[in-house]
Amino acid sequence: MPDAVHLGSGKVRELYALDDERLLLVASDRISTFDVVLPTAIPDKGRVLTGLAAFWFARTRFICPNHLLALRPDGRSTECRRLEMLPIECVVRGYLSGSGWKDYGRTGEVCGHPLPAGLRESDRLPEPIFTPATKAQSGHDLNITREEGARLVGAERFAHVERLSIALYRWAAAHALEHGIIVADTKFEFGTDRDGRLVLGDEAVTPDSSRFWPADQYAPGGPQPSYDKQYVRDFCEKIGWGKTYPGPELPPDVVAGTRRRYVEAFERLTGIRFDDYLANPSAVLT
Question: Is this prediction's pTM over 0.90?
Answer without folding.
Answer: yes
